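Design a sequence for this backbone.
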């Protein structure tokens, strides 16, 4: 009987085990970073060494639970392990700072007395089928405890995972939820979802307007010069010439992401892997990945999801997995590719899971660009920077002067570049790598000791500082001039003078601000229309993806009074969202200041 009972429960083992193996990160990490192989390290996180031996042990343990990987997935695996180490270190710091650590007793309670299937990495419905009493609707703790005893090593690991990761994370979320939204924020969000507007628009895209340093007036240069010169007074200045190698994603990379997700979806359908575990390991949305890809309960008619996504999800059966879908972005979904699964469904309400992949340059293309950069750098070092630019047909750019400790125009912030600019000799050549963004081969053109630079020398620096605002000014002026020729209250659509190809006219659907944001990723045109007088009020505003809009509201419907019952549900959602945002912002800011060095390519590529 015992053997048959264990066979019946066997499918749960892998679900538990896959969660349990995550603990190896914490156990090994806590063991310290002892240097091995003659002091060779795979990297350092905030100065603490991670030895090759230690990283190899973590890598090998995680690989045991990641079978059937493609060659490219195997190649990317070390980077995934490294990112997981960084993420856990950041979370550990925040937990320590806030005093949210969990005890052995806390873990035991959650594991044995009041088990949460999702925190154990198991589907709740399946969990109840195996351990629930259908007559009482309660969990059969005696049967569950017997199962735990039969698989004690696994559950000991799970207890450690609960103690060091899941309970602290749950407490972090609860902590951030205590920061409640104000009544004004609640009313604004309610109106954002409820008030409706219909408007005409006139749009000009910033990309259609060319600007040069000569477009800066002497007054603008002088004003910017006076505003920022105090930053440079008493500071060394340097200028560079730059060859840039962009790492922008292209159609090849988009296809790479789609095929990667399609492969995951197919393996889940074949039941080779568990959706929740794949989400934990593969998804680029770390917040939902921590919960096995769980997005929460969503109403398909609430417009938080793009219409095409809502349609696909509505057609999915429970536990069915969608094909990869591109999403431009919405309040609940990041821009990129997603696969979805419905965990539970009741009418329009769904419990939704997803795996998300950000569109970024694929590892093989990034390596090709890195190799080209190294080749150009070596040529420049041997034959000169200008000769390299000619040989490889690359037009160099210049940064203008920048101060020690300041961001470098064109390049922005790379710590090693600052040291190069102020420590190397004039005409020195260097190569610098900003993963996922661009590579640079540079030559040090000039360096000035602590003194003020002249207005003429400041021109290039001022232009790079103000290029985007110049484009916006040009586009806005163009739209304002077009609107000035329109009679009060007259439709944009009837204007024959709007024939310039840089102008686009149209009419919106009847929309709320929330709906508009969900479709276009930017609500400013709808927000401006909502605030302008109906019929003859024209408002001009910036729009999504670098554009300027003139909007003419045709019709509005606005709620006059709001009571507490109307905003009760919104209040809870805002608390959830605020918690996620604050947690994410803290992690992002900490990652920027955290000193991270890795040498993965040397040992694992």
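Sequence:
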């Amino acid at each position: 009987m015992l053997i048959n009972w264990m066979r019946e429960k066997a499918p749960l083992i892998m679900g538990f085990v896959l969660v349990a193996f995550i603990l190896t990160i914490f156990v090994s990490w806590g063991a310290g970073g002892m240097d091995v192989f003659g002091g060779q390290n795979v990297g350092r996180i905030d100065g603490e060494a991670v030895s090759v031996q230690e990283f190899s042990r973590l890598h090998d343990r995680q690989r045991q639970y990641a079978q059937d990987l493609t060659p490219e997935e195997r190649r990317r695996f070390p980077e995934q392990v490294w990112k997981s180490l960084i993420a856990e270190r950041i979370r550990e710091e925040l937990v320590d700072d806030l005093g949210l650590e969990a005890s052995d007793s806390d873990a035991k309670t959650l594991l044995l007395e009041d088990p949460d299937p999702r925190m154990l990495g198991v589907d709740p419905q399946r969990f109840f089928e195996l351990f629930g009493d259908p007559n009482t609707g309660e969990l059969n703790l005696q049967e569950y405890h017997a199962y735990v005893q039969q698989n004690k090593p696994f559950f000991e690991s799970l207890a450690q995972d609960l103690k060091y990761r899941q309970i602290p994370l749950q407490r972090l979320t609860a902590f951030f939820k205590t920061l409640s939204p104000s009544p004004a924020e609640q009313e604004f969000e309610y109106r954002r979802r409820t008030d409706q507007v219909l408007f005409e628009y006139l749009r000009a895209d910033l990309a259609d307007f060319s600007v040069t340093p000569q477009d800066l007036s002497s007054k603008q240069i002088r004003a910017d010069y006076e505003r920022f010169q105090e930053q440079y007074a008493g500071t060394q200045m340097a200028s560079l010439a730059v060859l840039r190698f962009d790492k922008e994603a292209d159609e090849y990379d988009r296809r790479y992401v789609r095929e990667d997700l399609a492969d995951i979806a197919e393996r889940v359908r074949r039941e080779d892997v568990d959706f929740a575990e794949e989400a934990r390991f593969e998804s680029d949305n770390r917040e939902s990945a921590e919960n096995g890809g769980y997005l929460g309960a969503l109403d398909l008619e609430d417009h938080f999801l793009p219409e095409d996504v809502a349609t696909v999800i509505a057609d999915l059966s429970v536990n069915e997995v969608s094909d990869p879908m591109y999403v431009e972005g919405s309040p609940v979904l990041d821009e990129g590719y997603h696969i979805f699964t419905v965990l539970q469904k009741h009418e329009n309400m769904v419990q939704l899971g997803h795996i998300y992949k950000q569109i970024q340059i694929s590892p093989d293309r990034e390596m090709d660009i890195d190799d080209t950069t190294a080749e150009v750098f070596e040529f420049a070092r041997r034959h000169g920077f200008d000769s390299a630019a000619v040989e490889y047909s690359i037009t160099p750019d210049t940064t203008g002067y920048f101060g020690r400790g300041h961001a470098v125009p064109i390049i922005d912030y790379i710590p090693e570049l600052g040291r190069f600019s102020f420590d190397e000799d004039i005409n020195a050549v260097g190569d610098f790598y900003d993963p996922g963004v661009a590579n640079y081969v540079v030559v040090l053109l000039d360096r000035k000791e602590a003194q003020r630079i002249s207005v003429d020398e400041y021109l290039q620096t001022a232009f790079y500082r103000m290029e985007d605002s110049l484009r916006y000014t040009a586009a806005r002026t163009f739209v304002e001039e077009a609107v000035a020729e329109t009679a009060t209250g007259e439709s944009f659509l009837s204007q024959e003078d709007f024939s310039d190809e840089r102008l686009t006219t149209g009419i919106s659907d009847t929309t709320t601000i929330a709906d508009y944001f969900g479709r276009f990723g930017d609500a400013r045109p709808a927000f401006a229309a909502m605030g302008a007088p109906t019929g003859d009020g024209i408002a001009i505003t910036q729009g999504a993806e670098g554009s300027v809009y003139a909007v003419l509201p045709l019709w509005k419907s606005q709620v006059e009074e709001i009571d507490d019952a109307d905003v009760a549900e919104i209040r809870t959602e805002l608390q959830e969202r605020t918690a996620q945002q604050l947690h994410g912002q803290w992690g992002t800011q900490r990652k920027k200041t955290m000193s991270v060095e890795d040498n993965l390519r040397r040992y694992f590529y």
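The domain at 196-208+466-557 is CATH 3.10.50 (Chitinase A; domain 3).
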